[in-house]
Amino acid sequence: MFEPQPRQLRPRPSSSTLSFGLDQYRNASNADLGADVMATISKKDLVNRIAKRTGTQQVLVRTTVQQFLDEITAELARDNRLEFRDFGIFETKAVRARTAQNPRTLKKVQVPAKRRVAFKMGRLMKEGLKGNGEDVPVKRT
Q1: Which residues form the domain of 24?
Q2: At 72, is the secondary structure helix, strand, or coil?
Q3: Is the whole model's pTM more than 0.70, yes or no?
Q4: Which of 15, 60, 61, 133 counts the most CB atoms within 10 A of its CB?
Q5: Which residues fall within 8 angstroms of residue 34, CB to CB, at 6 or more apart?
Q6: Dihedral (C-alpha) 71, 81, 125, 23: value to the nearest 10 degrees?
């Protein structure tokens, strides 16, 4: 008699109920997990990684990272362009007002003009994205 095979699930970043452990998920590459799975790295993960690599206290790293992000946000709010050599360029672009349509009600809706942040990759990031992420070129200062 034919017995159906159990369905195999792929792990998802937001699900901790799968048999695939969270530590295994964090340590696995996208190739191990399937092409459609992307890991999410939080600010806390970055702070822990930087603190461990530099031997600096997490509190100091967290403060520095937050101050860096605050400065980026403040400069973009002032319509300034941020250029980090070999990493990339952040700048704001104006999006004009437009008329959209609600797909459910087919009602016309006015969408106001706004600004959005655009990012253009630099050389090192482009090179890093070509590979599998393990041999990312690093520029030492």
Answers
A1: 11-40
A2: helix
A3: no
A4: 61
A5: 10
A6: 30
Using CA atoms, how far residue 2 sits from 5, 6, 19, in Å, is 9, 13, 26
Question: Does the pLDDT value for residue 54 go beyond 60?
Answer: yes
Domain presence at residue 91: no
Flag whether 48 is in a domain: no
Residue 23 lies in a domain: yes
**What is the distance, to the nearest Å, from the Cα of residue 14 to the centroid of all Cα atoms in its chain?**
15
Instruction: Tell me whether residue 35 is in a domain.
Output: yes
Nearest to 97 by CA among 107, 85, 112, 84: 112
Residue 127: predicted pLDDT: 87
Residue 107: partners with Cβ closer than 8 Å, 6 or more residues away:
101
138 closest CA partner among 86, 103, 92, 74: 86
On whether the CB atoms of residues 99 and 108 are closer than 8 A, the answer is yes
Over the stretch 91-103, which tens digit does the pLDDT of each residue have?
999 999 999 999 9
